[in-house]
Amino acid sequence: MLIVFRSTMLPGSMTDIVLPAIVAAAGEEPGSLYDVAYNPEFIRLGSAVADYFAPARIIIGERLAGTTQPLLDIYAGIDAPVFRTTFETAELAKYADNAFHALKVAYANEIGRVAVRSGISPAELFEMFRADEKLNLSACYLRPGGAFGGPCLPKDVRALSVYVDEVGIAAPVLRHILKSNEAHTEFLIAEIERRVAPRSRILLMGLSFKPGSGELRESPLVTLAQTLLDRGYDLAVYDPDIARANGGDGLNGLAPEIAAITLPELPAEADFDLVVVGKMSAAVAEVAARKSPVFRIDTL
């Protein structure tokens, strides 16, 4: 017998609450007479039946890999990718979807308020917005990793935040984008500090704001490097992109203390306590493969 739960639950609910309750009621552990699965619903009110038979994907949380075959049999004939994963991942997947849907509504409404106050048609504006299926309505940018940076996004979000204040519009989502970005860099620093002891030797792979570019303006990796230096870590930096930037002067504009620890090339052998990968490239991948431990912030 397979007991399947579909209700929205926070990560850890199946493992910490549901499963112990079932074990107590059944008087024995799962695996012999019964097993347990978590299969979150991704259906909308008013179109639940249609959504069930035409899902974007099926997510199944398993206690142990391979224990949910009876549930897969129920979905036989439904054409959709199937993800078999842990309870916790399946639980968070449901919340990630709903929070994102709410965020999209809130964002559209905030930009809509800005449009109305500016004498612009929100409908026309979002018709143009939705027409961009390369960046706006796509998988682009939807990959956890480092904070955003560079010469465009921080500047433009900052300008729009000032504008909404000037015209007197409440736009808490827009006004907290930069704060969220700063909080992410703080999270990454805390994760590095959790992995190594104070004053450890760290190699930071990447300095410019994205792969293939030597642009250092408002790069979150520069902020990361400066913070690690300020906190006393023995830091070295390597970035193949900046050597090709600014006519060969890739360090132009860097603080002297960061320029001084930026390596022109990677040493054949170096003893680091942690390699932090901020940007991936072929050269970086080769080094990261032979160094341990590695913390990849480019993909979290």
List keywords for this structure.
300 residues; alpha/beta; Rossmann fold; 4-stranded mixed β-sheet; 9 strands; globular
Task: Tell me what the structure shows.
The chain is of the alpha/beta class and 300 residues long. Among the domains are: 2-92, NAD(P)-binding Rossmann-like Domain (Rossmann fold, 3-Layer(aba) Sandwich); 188-296, 3-Layer(aba) Sandwich (Rossmann fold), CATH 3.40.50.720. The protein is built from eleven helices and nine strands. The protein has helices spanning 13-26, 48-53, 69-74, 87-117, 122-131, 153-166, 172-175, 177-195, 220-230, 256-259, 282-289, and strands at residues 2-5, 35-38, 58-62, 82-86, 201-205, 234-238, 262-263, 274-277, 294-296. The chain has a five-stranded parallel β-sheet with strand order 7-6-5-8-9, with helices on one face. The longest helix has 31 residues, at 87-117. The chain is globular, with a radius of gyration of 24 Å. 21% of the residues are buried.
List the SSEs and their pairings.
Blueprint: E1 2-5, H1 13-26, E2 35-38, H2 48-53, E3 58-62, H3 69-74, E4 82-86, H4 87-117, H5 122-131, H6 153-166, H7 172-175, H8 177-195, E5 201-205, H9 220-230, E6 234-238, H10 256-259, E7 262-263, E8 274-277, H11 282-289, E9 294-296
Helix pairs in contact: 4-5
